[in-house]
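If your schedule permits, I should be very grateful for your opinion on a structural question. Thank you for your consideration; the sequence and its C-alpha cells are set out here:

===
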Amino acid sequence: MAVVLPRSLPAASGWALIDWQQLQAQSDPAAGGTATIEFPQLGADEQWLIDRLVITCTSAAPTTFRLYDSAVTLPRMLDTTSSGNLNTADYPAGLLVRPASTLIAQWTGAGAGAVGAVVVQARRMGRAS
C-alpha cells in the first residue's frame, strides 16, 4: 500500500517597497446624485498600502464618501465617511489594496454636476524576488 505524503509549498517571496506614490483623480460631474472615480486595476504582482486620503466634493449638499475594493457592494467597502465634501483619513498601518484589485472612490448625495476629487498617498509594493 502506497502512502501519499503532503508536499510543502514553496516559501512565499514576500513583498518589498517599490515606490511611494501620490495619485490625484477627479470624477466626472455627478449624475443621479453619484460621482465615482475608478482607478486602474493593479497588477497581479503589485499591492498598495494607502497611508492617507484627502477627499473633496463641490456639492452644495452634504455627501457621503465610500471607498471600495473592486466593486461597489457593501462587502467590498474599505472605508466610509458622512463628511464627503471635505475630509482626510490616515491609515498608520496602511489600508491594503490587494493585487489585481481596483480602487473605487464614490460620493453619494451629490448635487447635479458636482465633482468629487481624491488624493491618495500610498506605498506601492511588489513581490520580492
